[in-house]
Amino acid sequence: MIIYLLCLVLFCCGIYCILRKRNIIKIIVGIIISEYAVNLFFILTAYRVGGRAPIFSSEAEILNMVDPLPHALVLTSIVIGLATTALLVAIAMRIYEKYGTFDITKIRELKG
Amino acid sequence: MMKGSIIPLFVAIPLAGAFLTSFIGKKIEKLPDGLGLFTSFILFVLSLSAVRLYNIHGILTYSVGGWRPPVGIGMVLDGLTAFMLVTVNFVAFCIVIYSINYMKKFTSKWKFYTLFFLMLAGMNGVIITGDIFNLFVFLEIASVASYALVAFGTERHELEAAFKYAVMGTVGSLFILLGIAFLYGYTSTLNMADMGNILATNGINNIVLMVSVLFLMGFGLKAALVPFHAWLPDAHPSAPAPISAMLSGVLIKSLGIYAICRIFYNVIGINPVMSSMLMFLGTLSMVIGGLLALRQWDLKRLLAYSSISQVGYIILGIGLGTPLGILGGLFHLFNHSVFKSLLFLNSGAIEYSTGTRDLREMGGLAQRMPVTSTTGFVGAMSIAGIPPFSGFWSKLIIIIAAVQAGRYGYAFLAVLVTILTLAMYMKVIKYAFLGNLQEKWNKVKEIPFFMKLSMGILAFVCLVVGLVAGMAFLTGMDQTFIHRASETLLEGTRYAGIVLKEIK
């Protein structure tokens, strides 16, 4: 149980970072943290206590195995996260070229 | 099995188009235009033939890689899918025609087409897939491509809007992924039909409610419902005009509204709590979007706020849950795709000729740009709900459905917002097209041929759909293809049984 709570704490750290930080690089870091928290949660749903790797072999009968599907899904979601992060960093670099700052309170020409 | 082999083409063709454009488009100058036109035309024709196939055979399925669902990934073509495919691919085709002339002022056209087709592949993928994680992957493909397209101009405002959009979009996707993790943990399947079956037997409990809220936040953010709308008025006006048309016209619908429909009706199953939540959010966006739009002077920002308001209508209609309400919602979805992309293309045409987006600087442009002003007039009348045009009928159906369901308050607000919409578009027509021509616009030229053609097609569709719908409305509803789409939603969680039967 405690591990799920820690996972939630990690997620909240990330969301806090996105909402409260003024530096856009820190916002990107916040996104990465909360993304990892969600991925971690997905992996945790697959975990069985004392489970083993789901590798088929003729000798041993598998009784208690870890669910392999979320691992594959999380791998995909990590790759997607990489693409998003790369794009965000690229935009952040261009913003720095144009505005000369990373502070979002100074990058406010549009009124949402 | 063979009948369903048309389905994966909707993802494969735009992906191939994107790949070829990025590969050889850089070297040959005219190639991206031709390739883009060719690809999007094929997609449009295919989507029409998908409707025909559905009418003949009923629901079609396709198993990716020969792995049978629910173990493998399944793709499903049903009424709602066919309807959405036609909407998306028709608008995309018109926008490609428009881009041939418009995108000349940007340097690297081939990059534009590559991203455009990636986005189209993502949207088509979201629509045809029958697997919830696959839906997430396609949603991310479309979203990442759209973040890049918003930043396409790489000027100050574009970058700022793109950053905001990307951060909020990513957070929305995280909530969706979290919801999928919960659902997988609860049902131990990812196939939407199978998941719907299991959820229907287990009934509603706390996990399902929690997942509903997570999905409502995630997809609501993609659809720009009101508490989550802050990115839209920045992102949509900052993109180049064809992309604004694409984002407002179809992206928020296929990623947001379609996914909301599919998941809440066919997977989780609609219940009174969710239904009233959807109606409340829909009405809220309708009113707030309308009020905010009224005081904008930037033409594209006004259109973006009015998108929020019109999305509210669609969600209100779908949230009602009655057959007539869903029909009206889906019909308004189609109409809004057509006239909102038309209006964004119009604003792009004005910007192309005059270089301004500020309504106060325009005036009398009808004298210099007859085609733009005529099509703009058709679009504005259509969105404002003036009788012969398409928007009137869909709004009328939604309001009648709300009255029939006993929701008089919502019906009253819907009528009120129609008046607001009329007021804001009167403002557009008055300031942009009518009045005296200003000195500095004396030399303004009408736009090039392909832009006129694309806007003409969209305006023509507005008018024809309006007339056909009027006839159908007066003589009684018959089997239109929107009807089929709304039936798919009304089947609710029985969708699962139908799809799974088709697979075996």
Features:
heterodimer, A: 112 residues, mainly alpha, Helix Hairpins, 3 helices, 0% strand, elongated, B: 504 residues, 2 strands, globular
Structure description:
The complex is a heterodimer of chains A (about 110) and B (about 500). Chain A has 3 helices and no strands. Chain A is mainly alpha-helical. Chain A starts with a helix and ends in a 13-residue tail after the last helix. The model of chain A has no long low-confidence stretch (mean pLDDT about 90). Chain B has one domain. In chain B, about 75% of the residues lie in helices and about 0% in strands. Chain B has a two-stranded antiparallel ribbon. The chains are: A mainly alpha (about 110), B mainly alpha (about 500). At the A-B interface, α2 and α3 of A face α5, α6 and α9 of B.
TL;DR?
By secondary structure, chain A is an all-alpha fold. Chain A has helices at 2-20, 24-46, 69-99. Chain B has helices at residues 9-24, 31-57, 79-102, 109-128, 132-150, 156-187, 192-202, 206-223, 232-238, 241-267, 272-294, 299-320, 323-354, 365-368, 370-384, 390-404, 408-433, 449-475, 481-490, 494-503, and strands spanning 60-63, 74-77.
What's the SSE blueprint?
The complex is a heterodimer of chains A (112) and B (504).
Chain A lengths: L1 H19 L3 H23 L22 H31 L13
Helix pairs in contact in A: 1-2, 2-3
Chain B lengths: L8 H16 L6 H27 L2 E4 L10 E4 L1 H24 L6 H20 L3 H19 L5 H32 L4 H11 L3 H18 L8 H7 L2 H27 L4 H23 L4 H22 L2 H32 L10 H4 L1 H15 L5 H15 L3 H26 L15 H27 L5 H10 L3 H10 L1
Antiparallel strand pairs in B: 1-2
Helix pairs in contact in B: 1-2, 1-4, 2-3, 3-4, 3-10, 3-13, 3-18, 3-19, 4-5, 4-10, 5-6, 5-10, 6-8, 6-9, 7-20, 8-10, 9-10, 9-12, 10-12, 10-13, 11-12, 11-17, 12-13, 12-16, 12-17, 13-15, 13-16, 13-18, 13-19, 15-17, 15-18, 16-17, 16-18
